[in-house]
Amino acid sequence: MLDFSLHGEKGKKEDKIQGLTPKERKVRFSENHTGQAVEERIKEYDMKKTDKAIEMVKYAIKCGVRFDYLLIDSWFTNAAFVKRITSRHIKCNPVGMIKLGKTRYQTPYGELTAKEIIRKLHKLGLCKHNATLKCTYCTIDVKYAVTTVRLFFCKRGRNGQWNGLLTTDMKLSFLKAYKVYSMRWATECAYCDCKTLLNLGRCQSVHFSAQIASFTLTLMQYNILCTVKRFESYETIGALFADATDESLELSVTDKIWELILDTILEIAALVSADASELLRALVDDNPKFHKLYRMYNLNVA
Fold it and tell me: Which residue ranges does the record annotate as region Disordered (predicted)?
């Protein structure tokens, strides 16, 4: 976790701003933060989320964080956000979910909505089946937000719901786009872990600075725990979701050592013209420590 921001919304009812009546707003706790460090955070509170997201991207780049893709959900995948990302010197490509709503895209077949594009491509027989992901998909390049973008649509099963992805990377394939965007699942899981295990958002203080401090400490805790997990388990954070990502683990330490040993045995067997399997069996049977390592490897594989 690199950064966060807290935002408030006025709500749809003009007579109950933020869900409060004028009387309730008048008696609620407030304090003057002029000249305090938290004043900058208070200014963020009323900012548009899309504007703050741009600032966060720029701040990450300023801190030396480099990335190829900016993964966003459908809330941020709009014309204004895409235009701002592509018009600035931010060398990255957004990959985001899109809503299958009334937004129109300029296609070779005219201005169409996402659903109309899907129907058109299906009618033209341009929908394909991906055996790896076991889904039906179609791809089209369109004009959107004064730039050319690539749209991907996919669904699972005959009666499955269509989902859409948008990217400004015109070289990106459907499979690569799917795999790249699936990394955003880590953010959702991190948020869930922070709420359920680290009490994120449960600070009861009425002071805004205390709320900022609470969020900061929680996210620092999460970063520390993730670092410990990374080095102790010697596996990617994605290993927490190995069942969902179908064996996305890196090789463990034992696997790597075992791989080196096997390579060495194969080299020795080739030099002395011996049978590699017989040489390995002799080493395992005659050496207790080697036998223990062999058992550890088998347990890990199991």
Answer: 1-21
Does residue 187 sit within a domain? no
Copy the structure tokens of residue 118: 């899907």
Q: Quick count: other Cβ atoms within 10 Å of Cβ 292?
A: 11
Across 90-103, average pLDDT: 89
Structure tokens of 240? 């927490």
Positive or negative, the Cα torsion across 109, 111, 117, 120?
negative
Q: How crowded is the C-beta side of 215, counted as CA atoms within 13 Å?
A: 14
100-124 in b/e form (b: 16+ CB < 10 A) is beeeebebeeeebebebbbebbeee
For residue 89, with 0-12 CB atoms within 10 Å meaning exposed, 13-18 middle and 19 or more buried, which class applies? exposed
Flag whether 188 is in a domain.
Answer: no
Instruction: Please state the separation of Cα 222 from the chain's center in Å.
Output: 16
How long is the chain?
302
Which domain range does residue 62 map to?
1-66
Q: What is the pTM of this model?
A: 0.68
Ramachandran class of 94: left when φ > 0, alpha when ψ lies in -120 to 50, beta otherwise: beta
Q: Both 10 and 95 in a single domain? A: no
In a domain, 269, yes or no: yes
- Rounded distance between C-alpha atoms, residue 120 and residue 228, angstroms: 50
In 3D space, the residue among 2, 11, 6 whose CA is nearest the CA of residue 210 turns out to be 6
CA atoms within 13 A on the CB side of 176: 9
Nearest of 213, 173, 228, 222 to residue 193 by alpha carbon: 222
pLDDT digits (tens, 9 = 90+) for 187-222: 888 888 899 889 998 999 988 889 999 999 999 999
Question: Which amino acid is residue 211, in one-letter code?
Answer: Q
Question: What total number of domains does the chain contain?
Answer: 4
Check pLDDT > 50 for residue 250: no
CB 209 within 8 A of CB 217: no
- Separation between Cα atoms, residue 59 and residue 63, nearest integer Å: 6
Residues 80 and 156 in one domain: yes
Of the pLDDT bands very low, low, confident and very high (cuts 50, 70, 90), residue 296 is: low
Q: What is the rounded average pLDDT of the residues 133-147?
A: 92
